[in-house]
Known about the structure:
Blueprint: E1 14-15, H1 25-38, E2 44-45, E3 53-63, H2 79-90, E4 97-101, E5 112-118, E6 124-130, E7 136-143, E8 149-163, E9 167-183, E10 190-192, H3 220-236, H4 239-255, H5 262-278, H6 282-297
Antiparallel strand pairs: 1-4, 2-3, 3-9, 4-7, 5-6, 5-9, 5-10, 7-8, 8-9
Helix pairs in contact: 1-2, 3-4, 3-5, 4-6, 5-6
Amino acid sequence: MKNRHILAIAAVLMAITCNAQPTHTGSIQEKLNAFVESKEYNVQKLNYSKDGFNVYQFAQQFVMEEEPPGDFYGPLLTPRMLDLEKAYRTEAVNARTIYIHDASNGDSPLPGVMFQFKIDDLRPMTQQVAFDLNKNIRLISFDEPDGRFYALLLMWDQTIDPDKSIGKVYLMDGMIYEISGWKLDDRPFIAHYKPEAPESEGMAFDAQIKYDTTPDAMTVDVFMAKVKRTCEIFERETPQGKMAAAVVLNKTCNAFTGQLTQQQYYDLLSCIQPLVDNEKNENLKSILAYSCYLIYKKSEIFEGDS
């Protein structure tokens, strides 16, 4: 039986009401800071972070030099991220709100959350975050001694391409949202996600390009259209937007189960290869380059093992 003591998969947000006790925010903040400072998975703080609202993005492709133990269960996490993920469980007993969902259990029954808070009386903020498909989700919040609320939301996905010549190639990507502020008088700090909600009062943020095409629905024409559109988006995006687009491109190429003709392969290669050639960020360049290799493996000119 999987070790999931905190929250059953069918549940939604669980509020844990605690008596007055010292803050436990510092412990999980310490783990977050250690992860960010380690640069594991090339984690970086995004430039639209501001007082009370910090957003971090991470993505990296890597190959395992040796297989994990036979009894290994779950995603492969680097040491600092593993410490951060464990902190959600160890601090759950002290939390006001805790939500844990593993992608292996299917889509999250909770579609997302809405944070409602203020930095001061002049700056009320409403921030929605949708829980994308195939994401592992960790959400925790605490009451601060000074009356503020603190929440930390971690979402990540890890995909694998079992290449026979290279080995298992992993793509790890995710986002972290750190929110700290005072509760609005007439609204809960964390509320249910509302897809049709009006524009945010303080800011609007679209976390990433959505990856929503299942392999079964992806015909060659659909696949080629998605690749070309994602390449177009990549070229006009900000640096953090480029990373999101590159991850979507990589996952789309990995999920495609059809076969490209030689002409179709060269057609898509002509879209992706210039992005690789022009990219200065080595991590981003690697993710793009592997997308070229993925479409090559799914073309009729590939001579590897089937």
